[in-house]
Amino acid sequence: MRKKTLISIIISVIVVVVVGVGFYSYLKKPSIEVLKDSKISEEIEGQKIVIIENYAYSPKEITILAGEKVVWKNKDSIKHNVFSDAGKELSSELLSLDETYSHTFNQTGEYDYHCTPHPFMTGKIIVQ
């Protein structure tokens, strides 16, 4: 009888530990945000998303069709903007963390842009 009780206690402890470890692992999973994957250009309702993060535009270059909208979202705590290298097509205010800027490209062509406070940050939109 004592042996059965001891085995039951051991099994109960093992079950509690396994369930606890599983629950802890679930809680420690990183949260997933739709715009978090900055390595690809995501499309949401016909809009291309460019993430500004770690002093870079990601993706650095995207190709879209005329009439499509591009949205830039700043994921840095530092302010950035989107400004055309030539012309006045792109001209955003400085964007704080989680702020966005969008522009619809109606004309075909190549649009090079940069961040005015950080000119090493560059990107390109190719409109077909």
Helices and strands, with pairings:
Elements: H1 2-28, E1 42-44, E2 47-52, E3 57-58, E4 61-64, E5 68-74, E6 83-84, E7 100-105, E8 109-114, E9 122-127
Parallel strand pairs: 2-5, 4-9
Antiparallel strand pairs: 1-2, 2-3, 5-7, 6-8, 8-9
Verbal overview:
- It contains one helix and nine strands; from the N terminus they run αβββββββββ.
- It has 128 residues and is α+β, with helices and mostly antiparallel strands.
- 18% of the residues are buried.
- Residues 28-42 have low confidence and may be disordered.
Question: At the fourth CATH level, what is the homologous superfamily of the largest domain?
Answer: Cupredoxins -  blue copper proteins
Radius of gyration: 24 Å
Number of helices: 1
Bulk shape: elongated
Total beta strand runs: 9
How many domain regions? 2
Main β-sheet: number of strands, strand sense, barrel status? 5 strands, mixed
Distance between the termini: 80 Å
SSE topology string: HEEEEEEEEE
Summary tags:
128 residues, 2 domains, single chain, elongated, alpha+beta, Immunoglobulin-like, four-stranded mixed beta sheet
Give a quick summary of the entry.
With 128 residues, the chain is α+β, with helices and mostly antiparallel strands. The chain has one helix at 2-28, and strands at residues 42-44, 47-52, 57-58, 61-64, 68-74, 83-84, 100-105, 109-114, 122-127.
